[in-house]
Structure prediction request, 386 residues.
Amino acid sequence: MASTVSIDPRDPLHGNVVRPFTVGVEEEFVLVDPATGLPSLTNAAVAACACGVELQLELSRCQVETCTPVCANIPEVHRELRRARLSAVAAAARSGSRPLAVGVPIWGPPGGSMTDTPRYQRMAERFGSLAEQVICGCHVHVCVPDRDLAVQVSNHLRPWLPALLALTANSPIAEGADTGYASWRHLLWARWPSAGPPPYFRSAAHYDDIVAKLVEDGRILDSAMVYWDVRLSAHLPTIEIRISDVPATVGETTLLASLVRALVVTSVAAVESGRPAPVIDQDRLRSACRNAARDGLSGPQFHTATRHPVPGSGSIAELFAHIRSALEESGDDEFTHDALATVLTRGNGAVRQRNALYSGGPSNVFDVVSRLTTEGCEITEDRRMT
Prediction:
């Protein structure tokens, strides 16, 4: 996020976190040639053409990232996401390219596509070809300024990571073919030495000790390279949830933000009431996330209580039931319920990409994801968020 927290997140009398929590969202996009759909190495030019929104340069020259300002509620998140996507589309058009909301490019970028900044070049020197990958995620920040509380919230979020990944999977196609995974991005991302589900933390000091060990061992350059699916922001008073592919539509990203924010609120309430987070084995959780990446919503998913598989829709229903009180408190329950029903009925990005591939080939995938990237962005009435 490019902004700072704009409201006091703490109750001055009791020190407890005040609801609703502020939230911000980052979305990463692949830049492509509008005629061919091939990756376009134009991120610097696109960022220079942006008006009304700051576009961040990503690891590859065919990627940009949008960041919302800090938002007080989910309707505001939706407005800002629409504005950011439309601004990115306009900036890209001025530079002869188009942004796509896909977890990986439909066709791979040419070699040597890394953005030429000192940090990224340093990463290339340390990690070699691993740094050449192009993957686009969505990161949701929720304000939790107390770091000891934030790591306990992280513990409570861990069981829900497979469900969030299954819901937002949007990268089944790479090099014009079906990879066999709903989220191929997750498989590519997992190769980084600091990626995957976070450990179970005893305290903020424990978190810092693990990060220091990663730096000491040379597995990361610094704390900014902690790529866990949930992490404490290195420069903001937030907890950052980053398990998801960039969703196909702005409505699905808004849904993700609503789910994540309610999960954080529910987790804070659990910590403050003394309810411990379930201790789930790291390897088992990693395996559950891998299964979610493979199957998306079509296969069995990890059940947080029994630790046994349940149908994909069952894990989503369990998630909604878990956070329903928080959603009702914020007034987001109706939107979230309806948006979930839409995704479960219509399919997420992975489902729609595959449908497009098998009905018309890779060029049809390009046409479909181009349309989905801006779907709903033209809506101006705040009453509708999908």
Summary: DSSP finds 13 helices and 13 strands in the chain. The chain has one domain: 23-374. The longest helix spans residues 250-272. The mean pLDDT is 89.
